[in-house]
Structure formats: structure tokens, C-alpha cells
Fold this protein.
Amino acid sequence: MTQASGGRAYLSLGSNVAPEPHLRAAIAALRARFGDVVLSPVYRTPAVGFDGPAFLNAAAIIHSDLEPQPLNDWLHALEDAQGRDRNGPRFGDRTLDIDIVLFDDRVLEGEGHLRLPRPELVQAFVLRPLADIAPGVVVPGTGRTLAQLWAAHADRDTPVERAELD
């Protein structure tokens, strides 16, 4: 049985280097390529794993005609077009970081660097915006929805500033 091409992708977006214009450009590129984009509120969050400027983080849902790996490659090209420097440390300042967190109910491991669900889903800056726009989505392997995972998260009551991109 062949699987239909593409699917619903749940993305995490972040930037801490001129974040407003980079996120606006990323959202515009997603809309130009994939059509409708469901976008979460944008949150200002501290850098995780290093000392640096705060990030603006959001989540998006797209319907992709691409399979996960080609979509990941397309997103990397978008990051590169926004000046993403991949030569620095793993945890560092970024003009743009877009990751596929979930892709339908697929589980991928051992296929290059792409893992689904993305391990960073445990981070508040990834989980909160996704739970905002897809609370009923069940995370493969957990049997729990994004809303349930967020409700149980240690940072669920930590106030976070919302930001505007417009």
C-alpha cells in the first residue's frame, strides 16, 4: 500500500537576530509555497542552552505536498535564504530556525537528522504555541494530545510575553 504524498506538517519557528523581519519573511514564504498557514501567537522567550538575546517563537500548520525529508530540505533552504549560519555552535543565535515537529501521525528515526516527533517538543517554546493552534492533536508514541502535554508541563504557569510581527 502506498502512502499519499505529503500531509499536515506542524512547524516550530524561531529567531533571535532581527526576529520580526525574519519571521515575517518566513511566514510569507510558507504562504507563497503552501497556501493557507495556521499561525500561533508569537511568544518572546529566553534563549535555551546558551546566553543570548530572547527569541521570538511561534508555530505554524501547513498542508505540504512534500514528504517530510524534502520538506525539511525546503525549510533549510528558506533558513539559508534568511542568513542562517550553520557553522556556529548547535545552540546559538539564529536569523531563522524552522523545524518540523510533527507530520501527521508519522514517526521517523534514523533517517538523517530528521526525527518525528521532534525531541524539542518537550521545550515550552515549542509546545506552547503548538498547543495553542492544535490542542487536540495526539503526539505519536505518547497517546496524549498537545493540550494534555502542555497542561502537564512544568512551565505552563510561567508568564510569557506575546509579541506582534505587524
About this structure: The mean pLDDT is 92. Residues 7-163 form a domain with the Alpha-Beta Plaits fold (CATH 3.30.70.560). Helices lie at 19-34, 68-81, 124-133, 146-151.
